[in-house]
Design a protein that fits this description.
36% of the residues lie in helices and 18% in strands. It is α/β, with parallel strands linked by helices. Coenzyme A binds at residues 87, 122, 126, 129, 145-146, 201, 207-208, 210-213, 288, 336.
Length: 388
């Protein structure tokens, strides 16, 4: 297998983007990534595009072909493939691009993610997202994603010492980071009080415990590591790509507040990268709800079960802490255009490892990790990156 590097990155701003269509979003992110790699579109050998549900959000299917066409590449006849794994669509699209280059099948490959979620009514977006759970066992009986993660939060808080204030501090930290990220949907700092006084969505989760509904796209370009310096002075090496699955329903899980797919994918990634936890300088985790960040930190093995609340309240996961988590603002503040999130996580880590993260830069960051979850943990992708 060949070593793989990220040679170019691009991302739209995230938010309610009434002025941009689904295809505009992709074209903008792709053009930024090409410009970053100083690469002409004709040099691209293949594309993988993460997208959860354009069919329901914008009534458009056949996304691989659409995107190749609007990127001006249809007449080059490159293979262009949509990848769908709910909120992990972007992470899996990235993994497919890495596999294509590592195997020697392709050289220059775009991994992208795009979602336009705000063109439908709130009830319709909630229902579409519910398709990432088990429709027959969960969706049909009224379970929504906030509802499912609320069950995880209640179980967790019953068994482990996590206070409501500590849970709120996840959102406070992520809004602090988002306020330093020019692409973030929410760029305002908040207090614990803001979270505790916000509308109750699904007990105990409140508005500010939830990621929002977001439009956005991100794209990265990967190439063989040995060719990377043709395109960039700062290639970022992909040290590991790992993926794991679990039952789609929560009720079939061994333990509903431990995401076993995260545990397994995290271990696999560390083994492939030949790293230990102390080597990781920062991590972008899948905080679709505040409780998800708490579980992710523990399930990835950065601390024992029951300790992530204290880690958060002690400031260990803050920008200036020993283990900065979600420097982009995470899904909570940066936003969560579901198919694009896994690629935006790569975009953030690459910016940090290149030293280009400006007011949220982690000094001397050399190794970073991304963690992208589909549904309540039925699909997980973990990647590790290194500055060489
Ligand atoms: N955090 C902070 N503020 C939020 C927010 C969030 N998650 N979601 C919306 N807002 C703000 C809006 O900006 C708006 O503010 P304004 O009045 O100042 O303009 C206000 O709250 C109302 O927005 P609205 O769009 O009407 O919210 P809503 O009640 O329709 O939706 C949620 C709120 C939490 C239900 C929705 O964001 C949601 O479903 N989130 C979860 C998404 C999800 O499940 N993703 C998949 C995870 S696996």
């Amino acid at each position: 297998m060949r070593d793989v590097a990220v040679i170019g990155i691009g991302c739209t701003t995230f938010g309610e983007k009434w002025e941009s269509s689904f295809r505009d979003l992709f074209v903008e992110a792709g053009a930024l990534a090409l410009e970053d790699a100083q690469l002409a579109g004709e040099k691209i050998d293949a594309m993988y595009v993460g997208n959860m549900s354009a069919g329901r959000f914008v009534e458009q299917e056949h996304i691989g072909a659409l995107i190749a066409d609007y990127a001006g590449l249809a007449t080059h006849h490159i293979p262009s493939t949509r990848v769908e794994a709910a909120c992990a669509s972007g992470g899996l699209a990235f993994r497919q691009a890495v596999i294509a280059v590592a195997s020697g099948m392709e050289d220059i490959v775009v991994a992208a993610g795009v979602e336009k979620m705000t063109d439908v009514e709130p009830g319709a977006s909630t229902d579409t997202l519910t398709g990432a759970a088990d429709r027959e066992w969960e969706g049909f009986v009224g379970a929504t994603f906030p509802g499912l993660y609320a069950m995880i939060a209640n179980d967790y808080m019953h068994r482990y010492p996590l206070t409501r204030e500590q849970l709120a501090q996840v959102a406070v930290k992520n809004h602090f980071n988002g306020a330093r990220n020019p692409i973030a949907q929410f760029q305002q700092e908040i207090s614990v009080d803001t979270v505790l006084k916000s509308t109750l969505v699904a007990d105990p989760l409140r508005l500010f415990d939830c990621s929002p509904i977001t439009d956005g796209a991100a794209a990265v370009i990967v190439a063989p590591f040995e060719r990377a310096r043709e395109f960039t002075d700062t290639p970022i090496k992909v040290l590991a790509s790992a993926q794991a699955s679990d039952t789609i329903t929560l009720h079939d899980r061994r333990d509903i507040s431990t995401l076993d797919a995260t545990v397994i994918a995290g271990k696999r990634a560390l083994k492939i990268a030949r790293c230990i936890h102390k080597d990781i300088d920062l991590v972008e985790v899948h905080d679709c709800f505040s409780i998800a960040e708490i579980c992710a930190i523990e399930d990835l093995g950065f601390c024992k079960k029951g300790e992530a609340g204290k880690l958060t309240s002690d400031g260990i996961t803050a920008l200036n802490g020993d283990l900065p988590v979600n420097t982009s603002g995470g899904l909570k503040a940066c936003g969560h255009p579901v198919g694009a999130t896994g690629i935006k996580q790569v975009y953030e880590i690459v910016q940090q490892l290149r030293g280009e993260a400006d007011r949220r830069q982690i000094d001397g960051a050399e190794i970073g990790m991304t963690h992208n979850v589909g549904g309540t943990g039925a699909t997980v992708a973990v990647h590790i990156f290194g500055r060489i």
